[in-house]
Amino acid sequence: MTTPARALVLVDIQQEYFTGPLEIQYPAPTDSLPRIIAAIDAAEANGIPVVVVQHTAGDDAPVFNPTLPGFALHPEIEQRRTPAWKAITKQYGSVFAGTDLVDWLRENGVDTVTLVGYMTNNCIIASAAQAETIGIAAEVLSDATGAISISNDAGHVDAETVHTTLMALLNSNFAAVESTNAWITALAEGETLPKDNLPTSAMSGAERFPR
Fold this sequence. Notes:
Layout: E1 6-11, H1 29-45, E2 50-55, H2 75-78, E3 86-90, H3 101-107, E4 112-118, H4 120-133, E5 137-146, E6 150-152, E7 155-157, H5 159-171, E8 176-178, H6 180-189, H7 198-208
Parallel strand pairs: 1-2, 1-4, 2-3, 4-5, 5-8
Antiparallel strand pairs: 6-7
């Protein structure tokens, strides 16, 4: 198996997700942020390019407004930022939609994106799903991402259930899901991360939850 040509994509690690109604709930930011930093350090030590993404909702929006403090990257990310990082501002959930990221990945020979950041239930899943359609492999680091609790007219789900469910869903088709430590080991050994597939996940699910 060939060694993946990776890029580490830092998805929306903005102040908006550390306070207020959009604060990440599971895993807690105090747990996920150190894992994100560890992934950055490992990427730079192994010559893996880093992409930093910020979401904008426009200058009139109450959140993700570029003129307000919540738009800024978390200080722990900002202080590590270098001119070598590819910077992207997006307005959709996926990091690929309406940006030049696909062109940049291909120009730099990247065939695999490693997604960390927020939120699992929005931009991470959207980006991993779109990666499949453009021929880019996706990896998601389960302890370097995070979700919020959701409640609306269709139902309600706590953040831990949202996150763990989406990790299983992603690993069944869209992305290889592993811990940050497992990813760092894979970098050192030049290996791909293992990923399940939908038929195998379906059969295992049927065995675990028989009708």
